[in-house]
Design brief:
heterodimer; A: 359 residues; alpha+beta; six-stranded mixed beta sheet; 20 strands; elongated; B: 329 residues; eight-stranded antiparallel beta sheet
Chain lengths: 359, 329
């Protein structure tokens, strides 16, 4: 009798000790925290937690049925039972098609009842890329077609404007909801052209993104997701960080580093229109292969150094010269350009490691 | 029998030609190169990655310092992506060009550099949101007295504030054909005008050695580049109100090698932002007359200011409310 009571007491103590935010029950996300309004980017987070009033033998976190994290009681001598458990992952939303629903389900198996229990919540996946190109016929071959080709089949919803007199209004309307952007156009240090040659400045991006993000911080905001990656292919737009304002609001709702998984490429020199496609070709295949923006830049610089690639560049007021490291500028946050558009974000510039990781 | 020996000998030579260092050697070379650069990496976590599309090995030290070397272990580049924030209120260590050149040269002195490299171009880059102000020191050779911007080079990028090396790269092994100029300046300009028009006076030209690996180069130039050989060529350019035109012509054969145009120039003034942002400084990130404009760090500062103003306003409102309630009662 005493033995039974001591087991019950031990379980009660374990339950009290293991009590966690969210309390009794099964919670998605863990601890009953706020659920994102959507899943977008390679740094999405999903989690679950449970406390079911009995020891938990197994727990599984599944995304659309795919097992991404699990816990199993080991039946080792002296191994204590757990009365509550939490599992969490970071994942790449483009593992599934855009505008489809993702179900996050957390399963647990109880020792006494010998049953599985679960809870789930679903949200929309939002992987969208916009590809814009100025109608100047000198931009040939078309970089937009190359980017389109690279992004095809990658579970991104693509919006393309190749040529045509597109206005800033059309451009920004299309930006609403994208997390990856490419724009090939004419530019100067703090301005670039729309298709109708109206100027677009950093302030335009800033005010537009304020409207599009809405209330709150991504992914708990009422509007569009953050832009993770923007490649602005235009002369001199990388002279300063004016166009970094396209990355507003620069932070995620869960805190952490500013500009998490956000980066932008631009050029601080004049570049030739007929080399746009070739310049896009050194960035996009690597980005869609899961390399970080920083690694892509390192690789590009190496190719320039070794003379394996060569492009023309001009400094303001200077003569043509061959492009050198430093001409392609990477704008980033404290994660030092670790942004990825495929494969899970790791916060580091390591090789791609797959579509999810436990956190 | 001779044939068999020849095959064996060729196979042996081929094996030597593609000799690759192993991972352990790559790691030790990377640590050695980092030490030569003056880097403070601990080397606790070392990842070796062999490129499948290049004869190169990347070694990442502590997740943030990347060293690329040839498959034979020859140093190619050092890239430090550790975050640096300059909090020093003192004057930048490399505020003058000479001190930057000297700092760069002291790093390069610890490596095998191509013979004849000399100071070529120094570029300063202002600090960005999460990058310090840096200074790029580009070293080139002047083969046979002519300009060359790629090929045998050394580039050093330094933190302007404290002189920390951010990026170091060395490229060598290039050969330069002796000058064999059979095309005159006038003939070259004439060919450029055939493509992009303009008067003779509008065209500038100079003779430079070119790396011919550009995708639109003729095949013989790309082949030369693959064999690390450069040829002396005419580089011609013409600037108009809205474009810069560029043409490259082989000084030996007179063949047009590449040509192209930019979409805008430093005189760019046709387009204006809807917020009236001026292209050159007048309406930079903080000067827009339209909506508010801030970089991420400025936004944080803005938030703090907003909170301070809101607190003061709330305090005044509260005091006024208390005062009026007291009077009415």
């Amino acid at each position: 009798m005493w033995k039974l009571m001591s087991v019950v007491a031990a379980c009660w103590l374990a339950a009290v000790a293991g009590a966690q935010p969210g309390g009794f029950g099964i919670h998605v996300p863990a601890g009953g925290g706020p659920m994102p309004n959507y899943f977008s980017g390679t740094n999405c987070r999903a989690s679950g937690s449970a406390q079911i009033g009995e020891p938990i033998l197994h727990a599984e976190l599944r995304l659309n049925g795919e097992l991404v994290a699990e816990y199993h009681y080991g039946w080792e001598p002296e191994e204590p039972f757990v009365m509550s458990t939490t599992l969490a992952v970071m994942f790449d939303s483009s593992h599934w098609p855009s505008v489809s629903e993702l179900e996050v389900r957390f399963w647990v198996y109880g020792l006494y009842t010998q049953q599985w229990y679960s809870a789930s919540r679903s949200r929309m996946l939002w992987n969208q890329a916009m590809v814009y190109e100025h109608p100047d016929t000198g931009i040939s071959p078309d970089p937009s077609l190359l980017v389109l080709d690279q992004m095809s089949g990658k579970n991104y919803w693509l919006s393309v404007q190749n040529g045509g007199q597109w206005t800033p209004e059309q451009y920004f309307a299309n930006m609403n909801g994208v997390n990856v952007a490419f724009c090939a156009t004419h530019g100067a240090p703090s301005i670039h052209n729309a298709g109708d040659d109206t100027g677009i400045g950093g302030n335009d991006y800033h005010s537009t993104r304020i409207d599009q993000i809405g209330q709150g911080l991504p992914p708990f905001n009422t509007g569009a997701p953050s832009i993770n990656f923007f490649h602005l292919m235009a002369c001199n737009c990388g002279v300063d960080d004016t166009f970094m304002k396209s990355l507003f609001p620069y932070e995620m709702g869960w805190g952490g580093l500013l500009l998490e998984n956000q980066a932008m490429f631009a050029y601080k020199v004049y570049i030739l229109l007929n080399e746009y496609a070739s310049l896009a070709e050194v960035v996009w295949p690597r980005m869609v292969s899961g390399w970080t923006a920083k690694k892509t830049q390192e690789w590009f610089n190496y190719m320039l150094d070794q003379g394996i690639l060569s492009y023309w560049a001009m400094d303001i007021g200077g003569a043509p010269r061959q492009m050198v490291p430093g001409d392609l500028v990477l704008f980033h946050g404290p994660d030092m350009g670790a942004c990825r558009i495929k494969s899970v974000y790791t916060g580091t510039n390591t090789p791609p490691m797959g579509w999810y990781r436990q956190i | 029998m001779k044939v068999v020996y020849s095959i064996i000998l060729l196979a042996f030579l081929a094996t030597l030609g593609i000799a690759q260092i192993d991972d352990e050697t790559a790691k030790s070379r990377a640590l050695l190169y980092a030490e030569r650069v003056g880097s403070s990496v601990e080397g606790l976590n070392i990842v070796v990655y062999r490129h499948t599309d290049l004869p190169a090995i990347s070694v990442t030290l502590d997740g943030m310092v990347n060293i690329i070397m040839g498959t034979d272990g020859t140093f190619a580049s050092y890239d430090d992506s550790r975050r640096r924030i300059s909090n020093s209120r003192q004057q930048d260590k490399l505020f003058d060009d000479e001190s930057a050149w000297v700092a760069a040269e002291s790093i390069l002195a610890r490596f095998d550099t191509p013979s004849g490299i000399a100071r070529a171009r120094l570029v300063r880059e202002a600090s960005k949101a999460y990058s310090p102000a840096v200074v790029y020191c580009y070293f080139n050779v002047r083969p046979h007295g002519y300009e060359s911007s790629a090929g045998n080079t050394a580039n050093v990028c330094l933190d302007q504030n404290d002189g920390t090396p951010v990026r170091v790269s060395i490229s060598s092994g290039w050969a330069y054909e002796p000058p064999n100029i059979r095309v005159t300046h006038e003939q070259a300009v004439s060919k450029a005008r055939e493509i992009y028009g303009g008067s003779i006076e509008e065209w500038h030209s100079k003779l430079v050695y070119l790396v011919g690996s550009n995708h639109s180069m003729p095949s013989y130039m790309r082949e030369m580049a693959a064999n690390k050989i450069q040829r002396l060529c005419y580089s011609l350019w013409r600037e108009t109100q809205s474009r810069v035109y560029s043409v490259q012509i082989d000084s030996v054969t007179g063949q047009v090698l590449t040509y192209g145009e930019t979409g805008s120039t430093s005189m760019y003034d046709t387009a204006r932002s809807r917020n009236q942002v001026e292209p050159h400084g007048g309406g930079g990130p903080d000067a827009g007359s339209g909506s508010a404009s801030h970089t991420p760090s400025q936004d944080r500062a803005g938030d703090v200011l907003y909170l301070a103003y809101a607190s003061i306003a709330a305090f005044i409102a509260g005091t006024a409310f208390w005062f009026f309630r007291r009077r009415s009662s």
